[in-house]
Each structure stands twice: as structure tokens, then as C-alpha cells.
Write a structure and sequence with these properties.
By secondary structure, this protein is of the alpha/beta class. It is built from 12 helices and 18 strands. The strands form 5 sheets. The protein has an 8-stranded mixed beta sheet, sandwiched between helices.
Amino acid sequence: MTGSRTNLAWDVLLDLSGPGPRHERLTRALRTVIREGTLGSGATLPPSRTLAADLGCSRWVITQAYEQLIAEGYLAARTGSSTVVRWSASGAEPAKPAVRKVSPPEIDLAPGLPDLRHFPRTRWAEAVREVLVNAPHGEFGYPVPGGHPRLRAVLADHLRRCRGAVVDDVRIASGVTDAFGRLCRALLAAGITRVAAEDPGWHTLRRVATRAGLDVVSVPVDEDGLRVEDIPPGVRAVLVTPAHQFPTGTVLSPARRAGLLAWAREADGLIIEDDYDAEFRYDRRPVGTVQGMDPARVALLGSVSKTLSPALGLGWYAVPPQWTDRVESSPTPPALDQLAFAAFLERGSYDRHLRAARRRYRARRDALVDALGPVRLSGVAAGLHLVLELPGGSAAAVVQRAAAKGLRVADLGDYRVAPGEPGLVLGYGNLADGSVGTAARLLREAIAHPS
């Protein structure tokens, strides 16, 4: 055999040229790739029958080469298993790098997740199956910029019907973070270099704005939401979570809503509304969007990360007409995933899932509040988390003591820019109902006992 052949089993190029019988040429080629490190210590070689078929030679050629390299110490044959590379540059098998195992907390009260145990697997699978069976062949091509028209239409109808939004054109993204990043880049291209953000607030979006080249200006939040009067002069964009502010849980008051819209008109500014936790309101129906009050001044962002699962990677944004052509419309999530969500919406499965989730989360919230006992809580009227105030205490110390007990909680201070009163952010979305009592007991112990 002359020339070089590509071994399909490894995708490794073996040079089988040179003098001598085939088994000697194969022995030299294998010895070379082992010594050069192309095949490192522990690499598994294919069975002799497979390699013989790949190289177009007899199985005897392979077994002779393997046996020679085993005798030389380059390979090792393991009974009942494959032949593996034994040799390394140090002359011995290197120790496998230690893998640092991080044990998950026994109970996780960190915010940010819905109830993953109740993901609607059956109904989602039905939607996926419908798409796979009925979608025309053309749907298996490249995704359409801006998102699939079917999903955009049905999602716009959902936002008008359930969120009070005024939308004609909804674009699809992989989530709120993705959509916000696109808007930040559009702002910078339009000459807007500063964006105001709530303090405390979701630090991930702050980092997105900074990476896009924007300066982030912090604006404090109080019991009525964003303090509009504290937006500095010259700022022309503001990021806000009016339905359920993260992490304080406040709802933007009607007066603040009016003030924010007045600011946008006077400053020729853009309000970026993150519709965070908007679907989960427990004392009354969910409040409508600010975008619905003035769609010419508000960009609306949303996703299924808190309603279904962040693993789906599906989100959306609706921007004022003057911003439509400025915001990137690609890339988009896979077309089949978009079509599955469209079918899920059209079947009414999404509405049914949200109704069931509201009942489940409300009952879980009530159980957690009762189990915590006489503590100071805020943000309990909506969403999937609440804030436990720690007047005079150290939140960081409580977080550490709770972690030692197998309980994960979040420090409110981790979401602040300016100093503030200590507190804990407790997410109950993905908390198992059977763990509510244990979680509350461990947290009370972590707060009450300094050691």
C-alpha cells in the first residue's frame, strides 16, 4: 500500500508509505502519531476488524501491528475492552486531571427559574410532532430573518390579548438578553451612548449594555418602582421592569408610569420594557404593558424563560417603527422550535399552562410565607421570588451559613450598585412543594444563629 489513507474510525491521517510489508508500515504509522501526541494516552483504538475494513487490508495486518506496539509499551490491551494508547511523553500514563465536583445545594431558593418539574412535556411534544408531520419541506431550510411569520403573527395576537400590548410586528430572538443586546447596539449606532437602569437590577443586562459600548447609569428604585425624577439629564434610553421589578418585586405605580412616558417624550427617549414575571400576579389580574400606553416610545422585550423553560431559548421584542430597521433581525432560534411554540400557542396550551402555573405558584408562595413566620417580606404580590429584609444583619453571612446547611439563597446586595439595606432574594419558582417547610426552617436557623 502506497501513499496516505485517512482512517475513518479516528479521522486521523496515517502515513502508510515507505518500504516493508503492510503490517510494518502500519506499525510505523501508529507509532508516529502516538509519539507526536496526535493520539494521546488513553485514546481508544478501533477494533481490528473495523480498522481492517477502513484501510482495505486483512485483519492479520492490524493484529500484528497492535501486538508489536503492545510489546513495545505504546498500547495496552484490556480484557473485554478496547485497545488503548498507553505511552506518553513522560514515559508513563499521566494522571487524569482532577475534576472538581461541585455539589448542588440540597434546596435551591435562588431566583431565576420556573418550576422545571411541571414543564408541559406532553403538550410540547404534541406541538413538536405536529410540526414535524405537517410542516412543508421548505420549513426545514434556513430560518427567516426576524423570525418565522407564523410565530410572529400568533405571538403578536397573544401579546395584544394577554398583555395589552399594541404590536403589529414582533421579532423573534433567543431571549431577553439577546434582544436587549441587539437594542443596545442599535442605540450606540444611533449616537445614544448612555442607558439608565434600575438599581438594584439584573446584573446580566448591565453587562450586556457595557459590552455593547454603552455607559450604564444607575437610577434608584423605591416602593413605587423606578424613580423617574432621578434619571440624569442627557440620558435617552432607560431599561425598566415595570410589571414586577427584579429583584425588589415592586410594581411601577400609575403615577410613575405616566412620569416615565412624559420623560420619554420630553427627552426624545426610548423606554426598554423588560416584561419580567408579568404573567404571575396573585392579588389581581396581571398589569398591562407600558408599551401599550405609548408604542411609539417603548420597546417591549419578553421570553418563555420564566413561563416555560430557559432551555427553549425563545424570546421576542417589539420596537417602535422608527427603530425597526436599526435593530438586527438575525440570527433567530431554530425554525422548528419557533413553529413548535407557534403550535403550542395556537392550541391554547400556553394559556392553560399559565393558568395552572399561577395557581401552583400562588399556593407555594403562601406556604413559604407562612413557613417563614414573622419576618419582613416584600414583593410577594407577583412573580416567582420575594425579598426578605434583614435589618441590622449581614446578608452575606446568612448566605454562607445557609449554604453550609445545604440551602442556597441570594444576597440582595449582589444586585445593587449603591449600598442599601441588607436582604435576601428568595426564589420559589423551582422549589419543590415538599421542601418548603425544610427550606424555611434552615433559613430561620441561618438567620438566628451566627455560628
